[in-house]
Write a sequence for this structure.
């Protein structure tokens, strides 16, 4: 496994590869869990060379406390990647990717950024797209792998690839869950054992919607809001029923697999997000 800490070294190495080799790219912010490892495995199955980046991108954190709290487990992460026989790891410094005082670029993704994370984490998607665009330009992968857990991010990255007029294929990989249904996330590390148990409420609500799709969307929405109101550990930030293609709210179901239900909620001060496509 090659580990590069600068884009210069990485690009020097990539230039030695024949252009016939397909490259799979998995961007991460570290604290790797099974969800990330699934992305690496998929990349290894589908591409000749897999490159994983580990970089906590400062421009996508609208909350400095969240950035400061973000787990850093580089040594263990590298061991996990080595075990999976990931080919290349790119662990740049902030200076390698950003000029001094450089801010996030301003993108226009239309309706995709209006609601949900776009509303509650202002600036987040500009920061995310800024770094993903930089990575795409440095690596120019054949395919890039993203988890469906961050559904809005996935849809925005697809739009970004189109805007860049690039051929990079964006591959969304289904969410990996704990046994109790809690979506795997680096933030789960910040939860106590009892909060991890309580946190299954999010998954239970999504499953309830899946199993009761004959009910009207406003009825389901009200039901979920009540579940969260009755749970003293949780603070619900949003529950949104949206069209998958526009991410705009819907009050009636669209065609099968074209609807998404997205939830963001705080438990023990930790922000969890999850979704289901129906
Ligand atoms: O999903 C993430 O971990 C980040 O948003 C990403 C895609 C690595 C960009 O920093």
């Amino acid at each position: 496994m090659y580990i590069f800490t600068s884009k210069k070294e990485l690009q020097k190495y990539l230039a030695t590869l024949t252009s016939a080799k397909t490259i799979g790219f998995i961007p991460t912010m570290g604290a790797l869990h099974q969800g990330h490892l699934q992305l690496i495995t998929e990349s290894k199955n589908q591409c000749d060379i897999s490159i994983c980046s580990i970089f906590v991108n400062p421009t996508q954190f609208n909350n400095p406390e969240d950035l400061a709290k973000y787990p850093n487990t580089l040594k263990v992460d590298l061991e996990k990647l080595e075990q999976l026989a990931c080919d290349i790891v790119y662990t740049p410094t902030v200076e390698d990717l950003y000029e001094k005082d450089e801010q996030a670029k301003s993108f226009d993704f239309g309706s995709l950024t209006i609601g949900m994370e776009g509303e509650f984490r202002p600036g987040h998607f500009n920061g995310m797209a800024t770094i993903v665009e930089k990575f795409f330009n440095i690596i120019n992968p054949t395919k890039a792998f993203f988890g469906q857990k961050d559904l809005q991010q996935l849809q925005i990255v697809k739009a970004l690839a189109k805007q860049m007029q690039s051929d990079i294929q964006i591959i969304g990989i289904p969410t990996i869950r704990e046994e109790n249904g809690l979506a795997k996330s680096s933030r789960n590390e910040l939860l106590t054992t009892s909060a991890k148990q309580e946190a299954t409420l999010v998954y239970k609500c999504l499953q309830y919607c899946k199993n009761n799709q004959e009910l009207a969307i406003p009825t389901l929405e009200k039901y979920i809001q009540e579940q969260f109101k009755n749970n003293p550990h949780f603070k619900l930030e949003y529950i949104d029923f949206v069209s998958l293609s526009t991410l705009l709210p819907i009050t009636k179901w669209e065609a099968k697999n074209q609807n998404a239900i997205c939830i963001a909620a705080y438990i023990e001060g930790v922000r969890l997000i999850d979704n289901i496509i129906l």
